[in-house]
Design brief:
alpha+beta, five-stranded antiparallel beta sheet, 825 residues
């Protein structure tokens, strides 16, 4: 009973659910799987190959295949070497008993010599061909001496030829055998490996020379079938190569097969050219080649015979399953199946990478949520708990040993608690002091008022320090949560970008190439990566580039008219491979551009200013303009402001949102040093597609926008960076227009004018009175006006940064090509 229960309760992982369903399996599929297991995995294909190679001849006399094949099998699959040896001896026995004995003796000689000297070999693969060479040389010389009784020149030459062939065949078999004997192969084959495989297969087929069925030569049928398969799978190049190599091997094996090489090469070429016609087209190519070559034969009987052999090869081709040819095509570079396999592999790698990046994004988002939504008590409960802890510590030091403890804390608990709470709140408001009235009232209630108040004053110091520490932890946690969320968003966007495949724009590429050629511009290649509005990305390869600005003056304007938006030259470079090709990248132009002018001066005319500024175009189509004013003057302030801008620039270029970037910089500045060194930051982010701007001001002075005769003021109130660890960044948004002047300045300029009560009105008036619209001129005029107002004395570091918003118009007008514009759209 126990045994029955144990069998009944087998683990579910051992139950094959697939077998419980009705399954109508394909008999051919099962047969193919069984054959693969028998021949490839168990190695019985080596027995068959050995048998055919054992009876293969070169020049109708030499047998150089046996020892190289056995040596290669012994090195590649040592456990299957006995099968190969049995096959070789069996094949040689079909020729003669002497050949069988010779094969056995030579393989034994190879094994003995290899085993005896193996311990001195560092690289076995390199030395195996030399072993084969010397074994065959010695064997041929001994055999010739036994037959003729002397060493003639002819015998020496034949021995040298056979040993040399053995040396070469060993190298070929070492390359080709792993492709047949190992089931898990690489996804693609090198050209050398394909040739080695063909030589191996052709050599095996020479073992069928002399076999006939109804007067049809088996070797002719198999060789033509081999050429048909490779022409059908890989096209004319590989097909003709297989035909030449196979025909050459057969012609060496039998002089009568020399004319057969022409037929195989021609049929491989024609069949590969007619590959688009599938098996019918390849077969038609073989029939044409057979008829053309057969006309030079010996009469109608020979032509009929070779046609029957070709028909038998065609029949074998049609019987070949599609799964076999498709699998073979995956290993040959240049085939459609190989390309699809590579694309599938790359797509899989892309999906795995994207999934990993997305997982990391989710991890960072989860960490951010855990910091944001960490289980905390409500503010009310937290305050009461802190108050209870505070009063508990006070009573432990004062009331614990008092004789009126029970009177105060048992009978009058609420009154005592409220009194002490009121005293603590009063101390917080008055810096540790207690009002006289409250002290007198407490003296009536308590017998040790002074001791209790002193204990509360002492405990209040610890209480406030603890509260400050908790606030800092809370603020730091919130900052970390924002930073993690920013990183999560960046990685999430990156995962989406990875998932975007290169779009198929073959039609548009042809249209652009045709338009350029009709215009007289020679283009080697056009590759379109994106045609998204505002995000066009096109690469071109131009031969014989003269370097006279053709790309900027001709090609970019033509593309601008075809695509309906402004296209500019993004980058140009010569081919790194030393040819005359020139690679050019065209991208969408931004709708707006920014022209910047700056004027700055150090305090007292010094060389180093405490102000720093930065203007940079970020990769996301935004333009950043920033001024930082370090605390004080001189080198220390300059270093502080410069590091602030550099850190901010790196964070913004990574794609993190502006507020999080500024908070991160502030956190670094507030934590990295204990010195009283602070920096202001005035940041403007301009979107170059729609000219919208965001202003983030941290302890900085107002900025101004001059639009015609109007002057707009941009202002926000925040403390300088590094003073407190957490603050809310005020963001002021403004829609800029083409022609606007954005004027930003440090406090040395804004507060510089002497004897001026209202700096806002003075600066607005000076900006409104400007006679120039050129940014550098505006910056110089404002700097000069401020310095003149102080009688030429520079009391503080001064920096004025002026940016002009302009429409981004191309330097060269677009060239109309209406017929292609309609086709492209």
């Amino acid at each position: 009973m126990e045994k029955v229960e144990r069998n009944f309760m087998d683990p579910i992982r051992d139950v094959n659910l697939a077998k419980s369903k009705l399954k109508f399996a394909n008999p051919f599929t099962n047969f193919q799987a069984n054959m693969e297991t028998l021949f490839l995995k168990k190695g019985y294909i080596l027995l068959l190959i050995g048998f055919l190679l054992g009876r293969s001849l070169i020049l109708a006399k030499l047998t150089p295949f046996s020892v190289p094949f056995f040596a290669a099998v012994y090195l590649v699959r040592k456990d299957r070497a006995p099968l190969a040896l049995i096959g070789l001896i069996g094949g040689a026995a079909t020729l003669s008993v002497v050949d069988a004995v010779s094969t056995f003796v030579l393989t034994l000689l190879f094994l003995v010599s290899y085993k005896a000297t193996k311990k001195w070999l560092k690289n076995e693969v390199k030395f195996i061909p030399f072993y084969v060479f010397f074994v065959l040389l010695i064997g041929s010389l001994v055999e010739g001496y036994i037959v003729s009784g002397k060493f003639s020149l002819y015998e020496l030459m034949m021995a040298g030829v056979e040993s040399s062939l053995g040396f070469i065949l060993t190298l070929i078999f070492l390359q080709g055998l792993p492709l047949l004997s190992i089931s898990k192969r690489r996804q693609s084959l090198k050209t050398e490996e394909i040739v080695c495989l063909i030589i191996l297969l052709a050599s095996v087929m020479t073992g069928t020379i002399g076999w006939t069925v109804y007067d049809i030569s088996i070797d002719h049928v198999l060789s033509r079938y081999l050429v048909l398969v490779f022409a059908f799978v890989a096209g004319a190049t590989v097909g003709s190569t297989v035909g030449v190599v196979t025909g050459l091997i057969f012609s060496l094996a039998s002089v009568s097969s020399f004319s057969h090489m022409s037929l195989l090469a021609f049929s491989g070429l024609l069949g590969g050219l007619l590959k688009e016609g599938k098996k019918v087209g390849v077969s038609f190519g073989l029939l044409i080649a057979t008829l053309l070559i057969g006309m030079y034969g010996d009469g109608n009987a020979a032509l009929l015979k070779t046609l029957l052999e070709s028909a038998a090869a065609i029949a074998l081709l049609f019987l070949t399953p599609k799964t076999f040819t498709s699998r073979l095509a995956k290993y040959i570079p240049g085939t459609l199946e190989h390309s699809q396999e590579q694309q599938q592999y790359m797509r899989k790698m892309r999906d795995v990478t994207s999934q990993r990046v997305a997982q990391f994004s989710h991890v960072f988002q989860a960490l951010s949520n855990s910091f944001n939504h960490q289980s905390e008590p409500t503010e009310w409960d937290d305050t009461d708990r802190e108050l209870d802890y505070f009063l508990s510590n006070v009573t432990e030091k004062t009331c614990q040993l008092c004789h009126r403890k029970e009177q105060c804390w048992t009978r009058n608990f609420n009154e005592t608690y409220d009194f002490m709470k009121e005293i603590m709140l009063d101390m917080e408001q008055k810096g540790g002091e207690v009002s006289q009235k409250l002290y007198r009232e407490w003296g009536v209630h308590c017998v040790k008022p002074k001791k209790v108040v002193e204990a509360m004053q002492q405990e209040l110091t610890y209480y406030q320090a603890n509260q400050k520490l908790k606030r800092q932890v809370k603020e730091s946690r919130k900052l970390v949560a924002d930073q993690l969320l920013g990183v999560s968003e960046i990685m999430g966007n990156f995962a989406k970008e990875i998932q975007r495949e290169r779009e198929n724009h073959h039609k548009q590429e042809e249209l652009i190439l045709e338009a350029m050629q009709d215009f007289g511009i020679e283009i080697e290649q056009v590759e379109i990566y994106s045609l998204e509005q505002g995000n066009v990305d096109i690469d071109m390869t131009i031969p014989d580039y003269q370097g006279h600005g053709e790309c900027e003056k001709l090609i970019a304007p033509i593309l601008s008219d075809i695509l309906g938006e402004t296209i500019i030259v993004n980058s140009e470079e010569y081919s790194p491979f030393g040819n005359d090709f020139y690679h050019v990248t065209f991208r969408s132009a931004k709708a707006y551009s920014v022209e910047v002018g700056v004027a700055h001066a150090a305090k007292d005319g010094g060389l180093i200013s405490g102000d720093s500024y930065s203007t940079t175009e970020l990769g996301c189509g935004k333009y950043a303009i920033a001024i930082s004013d370090g605390m004080g003057n001189g080198e220390r302030a300059h270093i502080e402001s410069q590091e602030t801008l550099q850190l901010l620039q790196k964070i913004l270029q990574s794609g993190i949102e502006e507020r999080v970037a500024i908070k991160s910089v502030n956190s670094v500045l507030s934590l990295r040093t204990t010195d009283e060194i602070f920096s202001t930051l005035d940041l403007a982010m301009v979107d170059l597609q729609n000219a919208s701007a965001k202003f983030l001001k941290i302890g900085s002075t107002p900025s101004f926008i001059k639009r015609g005769n109007k002057v707009l003021k941009i202002q926000a109130s925040n403390l300088p960076m590094g003073i407190i660890e957490d603050f809310e960044v005020d963001v002021v948004s403004e829609q800029l227009r083409a022609g606007d002047l954005l004027i930003m300045m440090s406090d040395g300029v804004f507060e510089g004018p002497k004897h001026v009560e209202n700096h806002d009105l003075w600066m607005k008036r000076k900006i409104k009175e400007l006679k120039t619209e050129e940014p550098q001129g505006v910056a110089d005029v404002i700097m000069e006006e401020v310095i003149r107002s102080r009688s030429g004395y520079i009391d503080d570091d001064m920096t004025v940064l002026v940016a002009k918003i302009k429409h981004n118009t191309p330097k060269w007008a677009s060239i109309p090509v209406p017929q292609y514009k309609q086709k492209a759209n």
